[in-house]
Amino acid sequence: MIVIVMGLIALGGTTFGLAEETMAFYPMPIPVFLEAGYDTMTVVATIFLGTTLGTLGSTINPFSTVIASNTAGVNFARALPLRIIMLLVSLGAGMLYTIIYAEKVRKDPSKSLVYDQYEENKKKFLAFDSQADKGDFTWRQKLTLLTFVAGFLVMIWGVQSQGWYFTKIAVVFLAVSYLLFLVSGLSEHRFMESFVSGAADLLGVALTVGLARAVSRKPHQRHDHVLLQQADHRHEQAGFRLGPLLDLHRPTGGRATSA
Question: Which residues contact 70 (CB under 8 A, 6 or more apart)?
Fold first, then answer.
């Protein structure tokens, strides 16, 4: 299972630069991995190493290898065999490392790096309802799985052929969530409860990434005017509050040398 998941993700990384798009993937395989006796760290290692090693050994990745080759004025296929070897060697090492750790955790859960969350994760991700405990696989559940898979296929198609990025990917996942609500037969209360609970897990990451990418400064202006470009905020009050933060990366030779 680790080999298949990491291999497929690495394939996306080496061909079209699949990387940060996998942020939404992390919670999805957790129930399967926990049922197999692994921990959540195994899931993180499988996905993260897959994307990292895949992009590291970019064979035909148009966003890194092709652009760099065109800039240098060389054929991007010139060192393709070397990049394939680098991909296979690094991916093999990553798979071996993850499998060794996963098997150690499976044999002795106390050796998990997140053992303090072991019971909490089992209750959270393996809390099956009574219908699931009976082993019934209804047509609604089948249709739910098909909708889920179709959403990923649409996302992969959009990223690879249409150049979709975070905004359009988010729209795909939002649309799929509404479709899952319709086909699964969940009540409105349970759907909203699950939706809010899932969104809450990503809220901290979203705020961190959004704030980190949003703050920029125009160095040619006389005063420190802050433009929160990505967050669509343009308030001078924000500039006043973020002034000390911007001073951290002020070039040497400014106010310090003039003093």
Answer: 76
Cβ–Cβ under 8 Å, residues 22 and 9 = yes
pLDDT single digits (tens) 122-138: 888 776 544 444 556 67
Q: Residue 114: helix, strand or coil by DSSP? A: coil
| Residue appearing with tokens 């099956």 | 128
User: Is residue 226 a contact partner of residue 215, using CB atoms and an 8 Å limit?
Assistant: yes
Among residues of the chain, what percentage have pLDDT more than 70?
Answer: 75
- Radius of gyration in angstroms for the set of CA atoms belonging to the chain, rounded to a whole number: 23
Q: How confident is the model at residue 1 (pLDDT cuts 50, 70, 90)?
A: confident
Domain range annotation of the chain:
1-127
Query: Among residues 48, 32, 41, which one has the least CA distance to residue 113?
Result: 41
Q: Using alpha carbons, list the distances in angstroms from residue 133 to 47, 128, 136.
A: 29, 6, 8
Q: Which residues are CB-contacts of 201 (< 8 A; sequence separation ≥ 6)?
A: 27
| Distance, CA of 235 to CA of 247 (rounded, Å) | 18
> Tell me, what DSSP letter sits at residue 234?
-
Q: What b/e sequence results for 238-248 when a residue is b if at least 16 CB atoms lie within 10 Å of its CB, and e otherwise? A: bbeebeeeeee
Angstrom distances, CA of residue 41 to CA of 29, 115, 203: 12, 10, 20
Q: What are phi and psi of 226, to 5 degrees?
A: -95, 130
Helix, coil or strand: residue 189: helix
> Any bridge partners for residue 233, and if so which?
228
> Which pLDDT score is estimated for 102?
94
Is pTM beyond 0.70 here?
no
With CA atoms as reference, report the closest residue to 160 among 11, 5, 12, 8: 12
